[in-house]
Design brief:
Blueprint: H1 20-29, E1 34-39, H2 42-56, E2 63-64, H3 69-74, H4 77-91, E3 95-100, H5 102-106, H6 111-121, E4 129-132, H7 141-156, E5 166-169, H8 175-187, E6 192-195, H9 220-224, E7 232-234, H10 245-253, E8 257-259, H11 266-280, H12 286-306, E9 310-314, H13 317-329, E10 333-338, H14 345-355, H15 358-361, E11 365-367, H16 372-382, E12 386-389, H17 394-400, E13 403-406, H18 424-455, H19 461-468
Parallel strand pairs: 1-2, 1-3, 3-4, 5-6, 5-7, 7-8, 9-10, 9-12, 10-11, 12-13
Helix pairs in contact: 1-7, 4-6, 7-10, 12-18, 13-14
Bound molecules: iron/sulfur cluster.
């Protein structure tokens, strides 16, 4: 019988997630000409700038209303208005995202009213300001990301005549993954609006002059016309319906919604292309079919090595789900699936997938809203030898000797987190190679020592004593 476990504790040690507004910042980075302001203390903004910058290796500008003791007691309205004005003067943004922190939400700031007053006072009626409540205690960065994408959609989408551009709403994936999705859609000659597109803003080419707001991102005009699209594909099956931007477009404007998993792994990627074909009537081109064939070939090649893998997979729910499927398809046994998010949907989705593989079903643990002290304990109990997830999991290597395949966010102890490719047939094969090669590296690093231990075991202390006599 499959075991499921959930961590209900009052404390968290080495959390498996970042805090909620951080996800909101990333979502706003995918909107053309946008600037984000955090209503809260300076420290929150500093931590988030640093974390995002370490992963994406880009300068990250995030404004802060710098709430201090006075603002906390008497309200932060003056700070927020001054912050908004400074952002307008320094950056001339086309849109501002205001995200709240724990402090602003705890003192009960009425952000909607304050930003509306600001626009009136400064005569900026046309400036879109999107407010998103994102207290750190309200959820993980993944939840912050989805809340923000939904608010952006709800704030900018307008009744529009029908057109042929497909909506593609993505979870928080690497910049390379976004570029790959765009390449695949172009190969299929499909017109699309991808939301949010931070592939250039968070992974910009080298430039001689510094741009305060990097170019790129989904344009406000494109978001405004999303209600006229023939359909929305939302790569977010673990997302609760209440925060789904695609569900919003379906409910408010009748745009048909297809909720799919990330196209990682053969089955998920097949589903992605079949859905594109179903919506647009376009054939899957030869080039993509050849990429699929190469993935199948690679799966045969690596399968014989993967059976040794007993994996812990952790990170954002969407990534955990797709990486688990990839492991199941390729002979790696997923032992522990863990996320710092509170979504309950992933438990149910993973349980359904695991049911199809009876040999792993019996000995699997799913952890939500968890941290690395719990993950580490479970790894010890279940003999895990491979970790797949973000850099916070390096603690598993340092303390338990479990090799880590870096996947997701943040990757701060290696370069190139923004360039890790995992989606589509090509991306899947690259990801699978990384997993298999990690297992092989482990094998070749340790097999002589293990063989020696097996065939020439060291004598026990008692035997040593006997020999000494
Ligand atoms: S948890 Fe709250 S206080 Fe801490 S960084 Fe996040 S928003 Fe700021």
């Amino acid at each position: 019988m499959k075991k499921q476990s959930r961590s209900f504790r009052n404390v968290s040690e080495n959390p498996c997630n970042m805090c909620m507004p951080l996800g909101g910042i990333i979502a706003f980075k995918g909107i053309q000409g946008s600037m984000t302001l955090l209503h809260g203390s300076q420290g929150c903004a500093t931590y988030m700038r640093r974390t995002i910058s370490e992963h994406y290796s880009e300068p990250i500008d995030v404004a802060s209303s710098s709430l201090n003791e006075k603002g906390t007691v008497f309200g932060g309205e003056a700070n927020l208005k001054k912050g908004l004005e400074n952002v307008c003067l320094l950056y001339q943004p086309r849109i501002i995202g205001v995200l709240t922190t724990c402090l602003a939400e705890t003192i009960g700031e009425d952000i909607q009213r304050i930003t509306a007053d600001y626009k009136l006072e400064k005569q900026r009626p046309e400036l879109p300001i999107i407010n998103v409540p994102t207290p750190g205690y309200g959820g993980s960065h993944s939840e912050g990301y989805w809340h923000t994408v939904k608010k952006i959609t709800a704030g900018l989408a307008k009744e529009t005549p029908k057109h042929s551009k497909l909506n593609l709403i993505i979870p928080h994936i690497s910049a390379a993954d976004i570029r790959e999705l765009k390449r695949l859609l172009r190969l299929m000659t499909i017109e699309f609006t991808l939301l949010p597109d931070y592939s250039d803003t968070l992974d910009a080419p080298y430039a001689e002059t510094y741009q305060k707001i990097p170019s790129g991102g989904t344009s406000i005009e494109d978001i405004a016309t999303m209600p006229g699209a023939p359909a929305t594909i939302e790569l977010g099956i673990t997302v609760e319906e209440g925060v789904s931007p695609g569900k919003y477009l379906e409910n408010e404007f009748g745009v048909p919604l297809y909720r799919l998993p990330l196209p990682v792994g053969i089955e998920n990627t097949n589903l992605f292309f079949h859905t594109l074909k179903e919506i647009t009537g376009k054939e899957i081109p030869e080039e993509i079919q050849r990429e699929r064939g190469r993935l199948l070939d690679g799966m045969f090649d690596s399968h014989k090595h993967n059976f040794q893998g007993k994996a812990v997979i952790f990170g954002e729910p969407e990534q955990v789900f797709s990486a688990t499927k990839l492991c199941l398809e390729n002979g790696v046994t997923p032992k522990i699936m863990a996320t710092g998010s509170r979504t309950r949907k992933i438990d149910q989705l993973l349980a359904e997938e695991l049911k199809k593989f009876e040999h792993v079903d019996q000995e699997t643990v799913i952890l939500s809203d968890t941290d690395f002290s719990i993950i580490m304990e479970k790894c010890r109990q279940m003999g895990v030898n491979l970790a797949i997830g973000h850099s916070e999991g390096k603690i598993l290597t340092e303390r338990e000797g479990i090799s880590l395949v870096r996947y997701g966010f943040p990757v701060h102890d290696r370069v190139g987190g923004q360039r890790l490719l995992s989606v589509g047939y090509q991306g899947t094969l690259i990801f699978l190679d990384r997993i298999t090669n990690t297992l092989l590296e482990n094998k070749y690093k340790n097999y002589r020592a293990r063989m020696f231990e097996k065939y020439y075991p060291l004598p026990s202390p008692a035997e040593c004593e006997l020999k000494a006599r």
